[in-house]
Design a protein that fits this description.
With about 200 residues, the chain is mainly beta. It contains two helices and nine strands; from the N terminus they run H-E-E-E-E-H-E-E-E-E-E. Strands 1, 2, 3, 4, 5, 6, 7, 8 and 9 form a nine-stranded antiparallel beta sheet that branches.
Length: about 200
């Protein structure tokens, strides 16, 4: 009886090692920083501003053509305003916004991908100012002729107050009148990556 149990356990261990040995490993595609981009838009009562933030690094993980993971890092010290408003850029880097000196990196890590093919929904952890929140957004995957892949998310909505950025927030300062900045801002991300 003891021998039979030992044999069964040995077979179970061998079977589990066999499954691990034959599990397909994800392919890692490295983001090409020269072809990739992050743009942003923030709105206030009397208008809006938009601009860019540079990527530091990124990767996308695929099992075949199915996106399984990845993420990117943004360099918050590179925030630019499209209108080249130096005062606005300096303020966005200051402590009451993104605190770029103390928190030079913001990052996103994919936790779940739903859907197959070109259109997917991505859920992941976005970290800004060392505060992490889950965000979900639709994205599109396009396989290019050079065997690279382009992943685009045209509108990722972020509530800045969840990251401790409360400057002129009407939900925090109710007596601010028309002098408020909306809590939500959007980013658009384009990642071009190759194995």
């Amino acid at each position: 009886m003891k021998l039979k149990i030992t044999s069964i356990l040995l077979l179970a261990v061998i079977a589990s090692f066999s499954l691990v040995a034959f599990t397909a490993k994800d392919d890692i595609y490295k983001v090409d920083l020269t072809k990739s981009s992050i743009t942003w838009e923030g709105k206030k009562f009397a208008g809006s501003h938009n601009g860019t933030v540079d990527l530091t690094s990124g990767n996308l993980n695929f099992n075949g053509k199915k996106l399984t993971g990845g993420g990117f890092v943004a360099n918050m010290t590179t925030i630019k305003d499209a209108d080249k408003n130096g005062g606005l850029e300096k303020h966005l880097k200051a402590d009451d916004f993104f605190g770029a000196d103390k928190f030079p990196a913001a990052n996103f890590v994919i936790k779940k991908v739903e859907g197959n093919g070109a259109n997917v929904n991505i859920t992941g952890d976005l970290t800004i100012k060392n505060v992490t929140n889950s965000v979900t957004f639709p994205a599109t995957l396009v396989w290019n002729a050079d065997k690279s892949v382009t992943a685009t998310a045209d509108k990722i909505v972020i509530d800045r107050t969840k990251y401790g950025i409360q400057f002129k927030s009407k939900s925090v300062f109710s007596n601010i009148g028309d002098n408020f900045i909306y809590d939500e801002f959007t980013i658009a991300v384009k990642l071009v990556a190759k194995k």
